[in-house]
Write a structure and sequence with these properties.
alpha+beta; 60s Ribosomal Protein L30, Chain: A; 6-stranded mixed beta sheet; 23% helix; globular
Length: 127
């Protein structure tokens, strides 16, 4: 099955992967980290702010593929510090107060940058 890739910021394309890939009616959003569109860290040592930025990046990725949060069916969060789970869960509940997507959380020992406390990936399904 052919795949189609999308870039929310065409002037800042990553190498070797795409932020979002479509295959059939599914959109796969690569793990999003807490950086703004210019690549700067947002929310140093604040998982709540970092989680909000990750979801903002997911939203931008979905938009670039013609999708929205309404199409999300699965999210997976990777969190470095277990005590930060409540901050992530608060953001998730703010965004999806009812009928949210399926969700998994994994506690890990580290991410690409030691300043990243969280990374979130997602899957959306289109009609």
């Amino acid at each position: 099955m052919p795949r189609e890739t999308f870039f929310p910021n065409p002037s800042n394309k990553p190498s070797g992967f795409s932020p979002i890939t479509k295959s059939g009616n599914l959109l796969f959003v690569s793990g999003q980290v807490p950086v703004n569109p210019t690549g700067n860290l947002v929310g140093e040592d604040d998982c709540y702010v970092q989680a909000k930025q990750c979801f903002s990046n997911i939203e931008a990725a979905l938009k670039s593929a013609g999708s929205t949060f309404d199409d999300l069916v699965k999210i997976t969060a990777f969190i470095v510090r277990p005590e930060d789970y409540s901050h992530y869960a608060k953001v998730r509940l703010e965004l999806f107060p009812e009928n949210g997507p399926a969700s998994s959380t994994v506690f890990i020992s580290g991410l690409v940058s030691p300043k990243f406390l969280i990374e979130i990936e997602a899957i959306a399904a289109l009609d």
